[in-house]
Amino acid sequence: MSKFWSPKVNDLVPYVPGEQPKMANLVKLNTNENPFGPSPRVIEAIQAELNDNLRLYPDPEGDSLRQTIAGYHKVKPEQVFLGNGSDEVLAHIFYGLFQHGEPVLFPDVTYSFYPVYCGLYNIEGKKIPLTDTFEINPDDFRQPNGGVIFPNPNAPTGRYLELAKVEEILKANPDRVVVVDEAYIDFGGESAITLVDAYPNLLVSQTLSKARSLAGLRVGFAVGHPDLIEALNRVKNSFNSYPLDRLALAGAKAAYEDEAWFRKCCDGVIAERERLSAALEKLDFEVLPSRANFVFARHKSQAGELLAQGLREQGIIVRHFSKPRISDFLRITIGTPEQNDALIKGLQSL
Ligand code: PMP
């Protein structure tokens, strides 16, 4: 703190991202990255852009990528908004599409960036407890609010909400924007993008960081009614007109053009998730049913924090949250078969 700081900065409680350790050779299962890496076509597209075009500003609207994403999801380009990772898309949503002065509803537990954006924009956040089985109950989202946001599948639980239940939340809030954060949708869930034409209050956000293995490139997007997208564009153009650089635009487009690679990565993660869940159950863990690229699991007798520490001493990093209700759990990203074997072996030795 210093006398030069705005008082607003004094009050900020920033998001703390998962650790990105500098050491090599770690089994890194802590930030839900994709173990299989991006399509080779992404690397080629970025290389071509690097060779030819860095001198030039990127397209501020990212038209070519928006067309590709729109075509893929069978919507119109004016229904797609691009951002520098879905975190940035979410920031603009909190600013531009929630009614400030009324509480924004999100589950407890959920992605911990939501309360951070509430703090940044001085919005009240109201946490809606999950059920005993760590599920979202649509009935709890029938109350006055300035907007609703939840991940589907939820993070860090991995639990999936069926689309019929998503629709219940949409129908209960016809005058408020309901945001479905689908960062993990490609690992076995059904996207709510198919509902955007039926619900003008629905906005779906997705990322290329997970299923498309591009966490380092920073590309996310939202799909919804053109009126919602127009608001997001106004916010974007009041903040940074070029959120996606040329490499990101080119690489992201190429990722969408390699469906076979995408499917192979998703199928690989799903198969490993099922294998790892069964192995953890054999080791006396309770494993929540996951549709994400991670599992959320607690041991029946050993403390989560100690297990995370014990794994770390063996060079295996998983995520442990010291929040109430979930402090017994470990969130374990699905790795390669070899990494998952190392994790199982590591746990067996504790
Ligand atoms: N939403 C959820 C639920 C997440 O877990 C993450 C990843 N931490 C994001 C959004 C942000 O992803 P990105 O900014 O990499 O697109």
Structure, explained:
With 350 residues, this protein is of the alpha/beta class. The chain contains 11 helices and 12 strands. The chain has helices at residues 7-11, 40-52, 63-73, 85-96, 113-120, 163-172, 226-237, 246-256, 259-282, 304-313, 337-348; strands at 27-28, 80-83, 104-108, 125-129, 147-151, 178-181, 202-207, 220-224, 285-287, 294-299, 316-317, 329-333. It has a 7-stranded mixed β-sheet, sandwiched between helices. A 3-stranded antiparallel β-sheet has the order 9-10-12, covered by helices on one side. The radius of gyration is 20 Å and the shape is globular. The structure holds 4'-deoxy-4'-aminopyridoxal-5'-phosphate (PMP). The site of 4'-deoxy-4'-aminopyridoxal-5'-phosphate has 12 residues, from helix 4.
Write the SSE topology.
Elements: H1 7-11, E1 27-28, H2 40-52, H3 63-73, E2 80-83, H4 85-96, E3 104-108, H5 113-120, E4 125-129, E5 147-151, H6 163-172, E6 178-181, E7 202-207, E8 220-224, H7 226-237, H8 246-256, H9 259-282, E9 285-287, E10 294-299, H10 304-313, E11 316-317, E12 329-333, H11 337-348
The structure holds 4'-deoxy-4'-aminopyridoxal-5'-phosphate.
4'-deoxy-4'-aminopyridoxal-5'-phosphate is lined by residues 85-87, 111, 151, 155, 181, 183, 207, 209, 215, 220.
